Each structure stands twice: as C-alpha cells, then as structure tokens.
Amino acid sequence: MKAQPQRSLLITGGRVVDPASRIDAFMDVLLADGKVAEIAPPKRIRGGADENLNARGLVVAPGFIDLHVHLREPGQSYKETIASGTTAAAVGGFTSVCCMPNTNPFVDSAEWVKWLRLPERGAVVNVFPIAAATLQSKGTELTDFHTLQRAGAVAITDDGKPILNDRVMREALRLSAELQLPVIQHAEDTRLTEHCSMNEGATAFRLGLRGMPVSAEAAIVERDVQIAEATGGRLHVAHLSTAEALKSVRRAKRAKTRVTCEVTPHHFTLTDENVNEYDANCKMNPPLRSSADLEAILVALADGTVDAIATDHAPHARHEKQMEFERAPFGITGLETALGLAITQLHRERKIPLSRIVELFTSGPARVVDLRGRGTLALGSPADVTIFDPKKRWTFDAAKSKSKSRNTPFDRWQLTGKVMATIVRGKVVIRSE
Amino acid sequence: MNKAARGSLLGIEHLDGDEILKLLKTARRMNPSKSRPLLRGKRVVLLFYEPSTRTRTSFEIAAKTMGAATVLVQSSGSSIEKGESLLDTGYTLRAVGADVIVIRHPNAGAPHLLAANLDIPVVNAGDGMHEHPSQALLDAYTILRHKKSLEGLKAAIIGDIYHSRVARSACHLLSKFGVQITLCGPPELVPEIAATLATGIRVTRQLEEAVRGVDVIMLLRVQKERLVGKKIELDTYISRYQMTPERLKLAKRDAIVMHPGPIIRGFELTGEVADCPQSVIVEEVASGVPVRMAILARAAAGKI
Question: Are A326 and B128 in contact (CB under 8 A)?
Fold first, then answer.
C-alpha cells in the first residue's frame, strides 16, 4: 500500500459528547496525523486544516465500537465479506468492529487471526478479531490463548454456541486472568434448547414452536459468574437477553467481579410477539424475549449495568431465511440500524441521556476488550470519530443496505437519529447528506 | 411476506366465526356418495412431507368426488429427497399447473411460507405442532350432528396438548363459539401457558374435574415421536388420564367421545370407550370427506 500524506481535518460547530473525557459541550475538534490533535471551544483552534467538516446541529462522538459482528469470512462470503460488512459498519457509525470466529474454517489459529487483518480483506473500518476459545469451537480442547492474543485477538469465544463444559470454562477463565484476555460467552444451555427456535412462552405455544426457556441463558450466566469470581478471569456475557441473567451480572458487578455484558438493539426493541406469523427475520439466538425481559434490559441500559450495545450483526442469504421457520438459520443484520434504534427506543422513548447512549457505543465496549485509546476523543487518541444527527428522522430501506444480506426485521422502520459521517484514522469513510 | 391467495386455509386462529359457519354449511350440502363436478378441470396437489392415512385419503377422495385431478407428492421418491427446498418445490408444482396445494409438513408455519410466496390457494393439512384446521372443522361438523349448537357447550380435551396441532385448532374453533374448554394432562404435555391460546380455556391436572358435566370429550394420543427429552411414565399416565367407562360416567349422559386418531387402545382410552355408543371416533373420519370437499370448493373458487 502506498503511504498517503496524512491530512488534517477540522470538525467545527458540533456538540462533542465524549463520556470517557466527561465532555458534553460545543467544541471544535482537530484531527491530524491520524490522531485527535486538538479539542477546544468553538473558533479557538488556530491555523486551519486541509479539510473542514461543519458539524453544526450534530453530535461529534468517539468512533463507535461494535463488540459483536459476524463478517462471515473466511468461508461464507455469499452472506457477507469483510469489505461489505465493514462498509455497512461505517454506514452505521462504527469505526471498529470485533468479528466472531465461527466462520468456515473457525478462527482458532494465529494464522487466521492475522488473515482477517490483512489489507487485501478490504476493511473500511478497524477490524479486531475475536478468536475461538476451543479448537473448531467444539468446546473440548482450548486454543492457544497466548499465541492468539499476540496475533491480535482481543478476546476469545465459541460464539454461536456456549462453552458448556465446567472444566473447560474454568480453565478458560483461569487463562483469561493470567493473560487479561476476556472470555466472551454465548450463554445458552443447549441441553435445554434442542429443536427450539424461539423464546418459550405464549407465542411459541400458539405457533406450535418449541421454546427456549429463560433458564437456558440464566443458568450458564450464573455458573460463569461463579467461575469468574473464583478464578479472577474476565467474563463478558454476549447478547444478554433475560431479566434473570441480568440479576447474576448485577450481583457480580456489586461484588467487583470482572464481569461485563452487552445487549443488542433487537433485544431492547422487540419481543417474542414480533415473531408474529413465523417471521424468520425475528429468529435469532438468543431469541426475542418477553416484555418483562425487555423492560429489565431497558432499566439495565439506563442504570449502567449494561456495558455496551453490540449488534450481533448476523447476515444470511435470502434463500436461507426463506425456509421453514424451524429450519431457517438464527440471526439478523444490525449494523446500519443500531444508532437509530438506540436513539428512538432509548433516548426518545425512555429518556436515557445521549451521553449514556454514546458511552454504550464507545468507552463501554472499549473497556470490555481493552481497545486502549479508543472509544474516546482524548488528545492523542486514534482519529476515529462518529458524527450523527440525533434529531433526524429517516426510514431504513433494507434494499439499500451495504451488507450483502437483507435479513432484518427493521425494513421500512421510521427511526430518529442518523449517522452523518464516519471518520476512521482521520479519513472520512462515509458521509451522508 | 405477501398475503396468502384467496381460498387458502392456513389455520383456524385467524378465521372468523362466520367463515367457519359458512364452511360447515357448505359441508352439509356436500354428498360424498354423489359426485359434484365443482372442481372439474382443476388440479389438486397433495404435498405430504409426513405420513398420513385419514387426512390424505379424505382430501383425495374429496377432490376426486368433485371432479378434480389429484397428484400426490411425498418427500420420499421426489426431488425433496434430493434437497429441494419447500419454496422451490412449491414453484415447481405451480409451474406444472397446480390449482390448489394441500400441504402436510412436520414444521410449524410451512404452509404459511408456501402461501406467502405462491399465488394459488394453500390448504394446511397439518403443520408440525401448530394447526390442523380441517380436523377442527370436521370435529365441529361432527359435534353439530349431535348437538344443536356449539354455544354454551362444555368440552374437555385430554392428553398430549403440547404436541397437538389438533388441540390448538380445536381450541381456537371452539373458543370462537364460546365453548368452555378444559385442558387436562400432566404438566409436560399440558403446560399452564396453554390457557393463553384463546379465551375460555382452563387447565387442570384432575381428569375427574375436567370431565364432570361436559358435553364433549376429546382424547389425544401421546405423540411419542415428538417427545424430545420429555419422559412420560406409561403406568402413571394410564392411571391418571386414561378414559375408562367409569370416568366417562362423570360427563353428561349424552356426552360424545372424540379422538382424531390414530387411537392407541389401552393407552389414552380403553377399548370399551372407543367402541361405546357415545364414541363418534369413526364418524369423525367419515365427516372428513364432506368437510374437505367444502374446504377444496372454497379454495378452488376463491370463495364459497
């Protein structure tokens, strides 16, 4: 790759919301040499820049970080590629994404971790690989955490399925403590969810579908929290979906155990009733839960129990979702709708302050996987910036998505809050008018 | 998803009471022993992904009695075996000229997927644990041969409700006409949540309580093939829930005993109950033909 001359960019007139620096004020931001060079009250920055970006009426935030995306490479490029997935990420305001290892083959070796980060993958935003916790994510033999970490893995997980075996999980969290490498758990006791395709409850009964009980998630989270307490390992609960599991996380946090958790936009927006008449775009794992679970999640997003909003962006080809509901694969896309849903559902409906929402997209996730210097606009940080209009009303059109897949329940949804520009390493990668 | 073509019958849940009454009225006008060429020149495809005796033969006889050509497509011996998707099979059948598709499928919602993507009527002949609308209609038809109306009746449905599409469709139908429904069986087969299916449904574990004073008793087979990880103790089940002549006496004197079949004598009911004068089990099968004639006439015409 040719070395490009580093250009400077001055963002003026915007409301800077940087929870990590405790800033929520009208400021100008100067980006230079790929870093945040200066941040000052309006019109105080002298000397000008190569490029100016007028952010009047807009929020200027640290670049968003998504802890949970499926970019489908290697092996399933018909669903998504790193290039298409990261373009969708940029549209959604994400300047960094952490990609899951349940690809084909699994990302369970240093070679594959490095492969994901090669320039020829064509990533538009920063990609931070998460490596498999066990070989081929079979749940039996741990991978070489230390080597994976040195190759660039920011966490390990067997996402898509859980690390079910107590002994394997204990060993993973022991190593996690030693290496300061988070273990991300897809909390599902699969012994209780065989043949299940949605949440257990009235809708599942009505539709004649086998339901996943709340306890399948809660029991694993509770067990993991106890192992994290005992080992000092860093546990991160992926896509937490039940009130019951939140109780374990709350208790762990009060006891200062190193437990974090993320919640997806679909789990804070929809319930199992949205499955309606077998809408496969409402089929994901964990499934959409009850309204009581949704309520508990909204409370936890507001009160600080939840560390991050993560999309669990899971693209699937049209023909795969156009199957019998029970046979269709789990998962929906989510990168381009995350901010709009957060502002619409959390800020407008629930009055959660914008600064808290920004935290859930930035410093919150950065802390979970130690993306040092990211998730903030502090001087010297990487020049990753997300600029959004918190008041703009727009309609999401799945047909225009930059993802290769269209499996979203939010097609044609009216949302408030839109990403206007995404800046990665000082360069504007997406701009919306 | 698009709307199903007119004349489709995907379930009882979203059918209104008037439509149900219209279908039953049409069924009463149908005479299975006299052919009525309402479907002359029409092609009815019976797409069966699951084994079936009663439903398949009665749909076939119903279609043929009305002059339709019928084709049976089963998962074995067709491209389904080679991995063809449900929708591609549907497109193929549409392309060869199917006018109506009657589908039986092990997955709940399969007929809905087909109907949402085809422009011809789709009739649900049983989808997984979801619905079996033609069975509910023939049950209502049978009840109405013995009772003046559905309004005000009390019914007990006993056995494996959880796995039963027959039970779900029956609950929806009877509930629409104000029938008081009691579901009875062990918690593994009759979860409390079953009471939320429609209005007027309650759950009890006591067979005697369920049966006392009812007009209709519907028995269901324990679907061992669908018991995933659930274990049912045979002896306990029989001692608590088997319909015996003694227990039948608790119901109204003119109560009828129904069962969608196949029955397992000595399990959910004794042989005496199956063959007693109050049993309408064989009559239900006979009702299947005129009711399915009405369903197919509605499908082919797009209206009754």
Answer: yes
Q: Kindly determine whether residue A319 and residue B128, on different chains, have CB atoms separated by under 8 Å.
A: no
Peptide bond into A105 cis (omega under 30): yes
Residues A296 and A409 in one domain: no
Residue A4, in any domain of the structure = no
Q: Is residue A378 part of a domain?
A: no
**How many folded domains does chain A comprise?**
2
Contact B109/A202, CB-based, under 8 Å? Answer: no
**A309 plus A348 within the same structural domain:** yes
Give the closest-approach CA distance of B206 to chain A in angstroms.
Answer: 22
Q: Stretch A52-62: mean pLDDT, rounded?
A: 97
> A55 with A71, same domain?
no
Last residue of a domain, one of A327, A345, A368: A368
pLDDT digits (tens, 9 = 90+) for B54-78: 999 999 999 999 999 999 999 887 8
* Residue B165 to residue A209, Cβ atoms within 8 A: no
| Residue in B12, B4, B6, B121 with CA at minimum distance from that of residue B63 | B121
Residue A180: give its domain's CATH number.
3.20.20.140
| A312 tagged catalytic | yes
Chain B environment of A277 (Cβ under 8 Å)? 1, 109, 112
Specify the DSSP element, H or E, that contains B197: none
Residue of B nearest to A210 (CA): B129
Mean pLDDT of A50-70: 97
Question: Choosing from A159, A312, A384, A389, which is the catalytic residue?
Answer: A312
- Shared-domain flag, residues A67 and A151: yes
A36, part of any domain: yes
**Among B221, B202, B206, B214, which residue's Cα sits nearest to residue B159?**
B221
Q: Which helix (H) or strand (E) holds B20?
A: helix B17-29
Cα distances (angstroms) measured from residue B259 to each of A67, B239, B279, B284: 54, 19, 9, 8
Q: Which of A64, A16, A8, A5 is nearest to A40 (CA)?
A: A16
- pTM, two decimals, is 0.95
Regarding whether A40 and A130 lie in a shared domain, the answer is no
Range of the domain at A194: 63-368
Single out the residue in A368, A402, A422 at which a domain terminates.
A368
A153 in a structural domain: yes
State pLDDT tens for residues A76-129: 999 999 999 999 999 999 999 999 999 999 999 999 999 999 999 999 999 999
pLDDT tens per residue across span B184-217:
999 999 999 999 999 999 999 999 999 999 999 9
Per CB-CB distance under 8 Å, the chain A contacts of B165 are 208
The CATH number assigned to the domain holding A43 equals 2.30.40.10
Q: Which H or E element spans position B46?
A: strand B43-48
pLDDT at A6: 66
User: Can you list the domains of chain B with their CATH numbers?
Assistant: 17-131+287-301 (3.40.50.1370), 134-284 (3.40.50.1370)
Best of A322, A323, A324 to mutate (most B CBs within 10 Å, chain B): A324
Q: In this predicted structure, what is the pLDDT of residue B302?
A: 60
Asked whether residue A16 falls in the same domain as residue A155, the answer is: no
Q: Are residues A148 and A194 in the same domain?
A: yes
Dihedral of the CA atoms A385, A389, A390, A393 (nearest 10)? -140
The complex scores an ipTM of 0.96
Region A32-56 average pLDDT: 95
What is residue B94's three-state secondary structure?
helix
Residue B149 carries which DSSP code?
A: -
Residues A47 and A77 in one domain: no
